[in-house]
Amino acid sequence: MKDLKILKIGGSIITKKDRDNPSPDLEQMEKVAEEIKEGISNVSGLILVHGAGSYGHPIVKRTGINKGITNKEDRINFAETQRLQNELNSIFTEVLIGKGVPAFPVQPSASAIMEGKLERMDVEVINGLLDEGLVPVLYGVPAYDRERGCSILSGDEIMPYLARELDAGTVLHGTNVDGIYTSDPNENPDAELIEKVESMEEVRDRVGGSKDTDVTGGMLNKVEEIVDMGISGRIFNASRPGNIIKALCGEEVGTYIESVD
Amino acid sequence: MKDLKILKIGGSIITKKDRDNPSPDLEQMEKVAEEIKEGISNVSGLILVHGAGSYGHPIVKRTGINKGITNKEDRINFAETQRLQNELNSIFTEVLIGKGVPAFPVQPSASAIMEGKLERMDVEVINGLLDEGLVPVLYGVPAYDRERGCSILSGDEIMPYLARELDAGTVLHGTNVDGIYTSDPNENPDAELIEKVESMEEVRDRVGGSKDTDVTGGMLNKVEEIVDMGISGRIFNASRPGNIIKALCGEEVGTYIESVD
Asked: Measured between alpha carbons, how far is B60 from B244 in angstroms, rounded to an integer?
């Protein structure tokens, strides 16, 4: 489906990310859901992927479950980490459905097989749901791993997999930064937002040859993924009012990556 | 896995089934979870499947979503019906995990393909979770249907599918009735509980040749499924204290179905 768009909503948008305990950001969820509802008429197919924020990072950090399963406690932590992601997804899809978005939860770890990275995941249901006009909603999860019992399947890893398997036309990264800058805007007042790039080479040139990908909040990985897929994408700030609508409508917002084959 | 047991917990056990709105029965959930925790050391592999009760029947009846998707409203109802099942599963697995059961949620409709009935569902993850000592928890859901958009995949349909695909040794139906009776115990004081049967013929003989399968609460279908699989099974009352432990330990409770090849 060449017109299929995949929209990632970062965990920093829909949760209070800095909290030590799972804390949804209901106000932001409402805003995000409203903008998706408003923008959805402009897309012929939409998949949502969301991150975990405070539903994921604190428990993973506390339990070390990302390293795999070695004992009884790990099994409990693996199960509870998964359960928490379903809880967050249930809260977010409730808000989406409340706004009139037919947001159908799809638990990635119900079919995903990991081997360090994502080996395979069932997409036939997702395809079918799209055919029926639904909006599948996937999310970062801890998943079964053939080598070490479990590992983390992040939303950022789900997105390119789906784009490839379902032949998506565009991926949209809704983050909490405005896009890719020529240098760290927090430290350099002359930092400029890069509005459009066509290759990794171009990005590296423009960020001043800096080796530190963190100057742009680790966003270069996302650009590289998009370029590797040979499709177009956008990295934008989903917390600023109107930006999700703009992204869904193909209007200028954030950094646009136009891959050139 | 010949020692694999699949335990179904009916929606009438873990929810207040007669309510018009989704109402979990937290007290029963606690009891069920405690008995599973106590019985689990006696099994080498366990899958749980639970029903929907008041999280499923009222919304399905109100919206007619079981008939498929024909309009925009159906899509919203399909999504919301799924979301509600995830919510129930999240509440139940929270109680299970709290008791120390490594209960890992597995959303069946994330990979199930229906064509009126269940066509296929991914079981590789379930197998992997069992290998890692987890307890996969599946549940009745509305699922994508190739023919009419969506249909209901009940816990009762998931159970024999898993038993076949994963080569289970025993299925245990935890219901709100004591087992199969020779006639309706509510109407006939002479009704006797059938403790063991070996074939459908024997069951039909003993229930007095009655054509009305409802005399035993529609339980004959469950017996037929077990007999068809050629494995052993048990239909018992999961709401009576101690029964789940007995069932998991292979002790006498309810009606035992010993299929004879």
From this structure: 29
Distance from CA of B137 to the nearest CA of A (A): 10
Residue A160 Cα distances to A49, A144, A156, angstroms = 11, 19, 7
Contacts of A82 in chain B (CB under 8 A): 104-105
How near does any CA of chain A get to the CA of B43, in Å? 16
**Domain B4-257: CATH superfamily, name plus number:** Acetylglutamate kinase-like (3.40.1160.10)
Give B132-150 pLDDT, tens digit per residue.
999 999 999 999 999 999 9
Q: Read off φ and ψ for residue B74, nearest 5 degrees.
A: -60, -35
Owner of token pair 């106000």: A27
Residue among B40, B47, B111, B129 with most chain A CBs within 10 A, to mutate: B111
Mean pLDDT of A113-138: 97
What are the residue ranges spanned by the domains of chain A? 4-257
Question: Which uninterrupted H or E stretch holds A27?
Answer: helix A26-39
Cβ–Cβ contact B115 with A under 8 A = no
Looking at residue A216, the DSSP 8-state letter turns out to be G
B122 contacts A113 by C-beta, under 8 angstroms: no
pLDDT of residue B2: 62
